[in-house]
Amino acid sequence: MNDARPAPGSEMIIQWRKWDGSPHWRHESVYLGADEWGDWVGQPTGWRSERPGREFLAPGPNVTLIPRQTDFALTVNRAHPKQVRVYIDLGWDVRWTDDPFLATGIDMDLDVVRVEGERGTWVDDRDEWAEHSVRYGYPAEVMAHLEELTLDLERRVRAQLAPFDDATADAWLDRLEALGLERLTGHLH
Question: What is the pTM of this model?
Answer without folding.
Answer: 0.93
